[in-house]
Amino acid sequence: MNKFKKVDCGCDTIANCCGGPKTEKHSQIAVLGGVKTKAGDIPVVSAKLGFKDTLGSWRMRWGFGRYSYSIEPGIYAVGKPKNTSPVFVSANYKMSFDKLRKALADIDCFILVLDTKGINVWCAAGKGTFGTEELIKRIKAVNLEKIVARKQVILPQLGAPGVAAHIVAKKTGFKPVYGPVRAEDIPLFMKKGMKADEKMRSVEFPFKERIVLAPFEIIGSLKLLTVAFVLLSVINLFKSGGLNIQNTLCSFLPYLGSAFVGAVLVPALLPWIPGKSFAYKGWLAGLLYVAVIGNMWFPGTTVYFTWLLILPAISAFIVLNFTGCSTYTSLSGVKKEMRYAIPLIVVSALIGIVLNFL
After folding, report:
1. Which residues pair with 70 in a beta bridge?
2. Whole-angstrom distance between the N-terminal and C-terminal Cα of the chain?
C-alpha cells in the first residue's frame, strides 16, 4: 500500500481527512496507488469489486454488521483523474460507495465521500447526514478547490432532499449537479453532457429490488419470532402442565408462515395487494394466509380465532418495517402509518395471546 503525505489536521491522507485537529491514524480501504494534487496525494481505489466486497454486500443483505459497514469520509480517485476530471459525491456506507465506483470503471474521476454515519444516500438525506452542512464541511476539509479546476460536484439524485444547492454554491463556490437515480446510468449521463433523461430521473422499485431485501427482513423478524416461541412454550406449559417441545414446534409453524408472508410474499406482490398502507397490505395477506391454513386445520375452533388475531398482526408488523426500504413512502407517511398501525397491531396480538390461555 502506498504511503501518503500527512495533511495538516494530522490525518494520514487527504482521503481520510476529518477536517479537524485529530492526530490518530484512520483506517483505510485498500488502494491501488496515488494521484498527486496541489492538496496532497489522493488514493486510487479499484472500480472492480473483489470477493471481499461481494461477501460484504451479502452480509449486509442478511443484516450482519449493518451499522459498521462504512469507509472513512474524504476523497478518493478512480482511474487517472486530472484537475479537469469530474467529482462525484457519495455516502460513506460501503455498499453505496462500492456501487458508485463500480459504475465509474471507464471514467477518470474523484469521489468525495460524506460522513453519513454509515447510512446509505437516500436514508441519510432524510436523516440530514447527507446534507448541506456535511457537504460544505467535506469540500473545505479536503481542499477541493486545490484538486479540481471545475467548480462542480455531481450528487446522486436521491440525495437531493438533504442538500440546499444554492447554499453549497454560495459557501464553497462549487455548484451541485444532480446525477441519475441509479449509479449504472452515470456513464450515459456523462456522455449526454451531464443531462438526465426521464428514465434516469424515474424512481422505480421492481420485483428484483424488492425481493433482494427479503433476507434483511427475515433476519429482522427473528426477535419477534423468538418472543412468539417463548410465549407458545409458556402457554403449552400452562395448559399441559409440562413442556412438550414437539407440540410447541408444531404450533410454532404457523407463526413462521406469517413471518414468511410479511418478509417475502408481501414485498414480492406489493403492487398487486390492495391498499396504500403497508400495514394493511401485510394484515390482508396474513388474513388470507390464516383463512387458508385455519380452515384446513382448525375450522371454527379457538385456535383458529387466535390465529386470526395474532398471525395477521405479525405479518402487518413485519411489512410495516419494510417501509424503510421502499420508494413508495415518505417520512411523514411512515410516521402517520406507524401512529395508527402499531397500536392496532399490539391490541390485536394481545387479545390473541389472552385467548390462547383460555
Report:
1. 93
2. 68
How far is the C-alpha of 161 from the C-alpha of 337, rounded, in Å?
21
For 11-20, how does the pLDDT look when each residue is reduced to its tens digit (9 = 90+)?
A: 444 444 444 3
**250-258 long-range Cβ contacts below 8 angstroms, 24+ apart:** 252/228, 254/290, 254/293, 254/307, 254/311, 255/225, 255/228, 255/229, 255/310, 255/311, 255/314, 256/225, 257/289, 257/293, 257/311, 258/286, 258/289, 258/290, 258/310, 258/311, 258/312, 258/314, 258/315
pLDDT at 15: 44
| Residue 93 pLDDT grade (very low, low, confident, very high; cuts 50, 70, 90) | very high
- The predicted model scores a pTM of 0.79
Comparing C-alpha atoms, which of 164, 157, 161 is closest to residue 203?
157
Full DSSP string of 100-146: HHHHTTT--EEEEEE--TT--HHHHHHHTSSSHHHHHHHHHHTTHHH
> What does the pLDDT average to over 243-258?
84
Give Cβ neighbours of residue 158 (< 8 Å, ≥ 6 apart): 121, 122, 125, 181, 203
Question: Cell 390462547 sits at which residue?
Answer: 356
Eight-state DSSP code of residue 325: T
Distance in angstroms (rounded) separating the CA atoms of residues 249 and 2: 56
What is the DSSP secondary-structure string of 16-45? Answer: G--SS---SPPP----SEEEEETTEEEEE-
Alpha-carbon separation of residue 262 from 109, 309, 328 (angstroms): 42, 15, 17
List all residues 6 or more positions away from 62 whose beta carbon is below 8 Å from its beta carbon.
215, 216, 219
Q: What is the pLDDT of residue 261?
A: 95
Domains identified in the chain and CATH numbers: 14-203 (3.40.50.11600), 208-357 (no CATH)
Q: Is the pLDDT of residue 114 over 80?
A: yes
Q: State the pLDDT at residue 19.
A: 41
Rounded mean pLDDT of the chain? 84
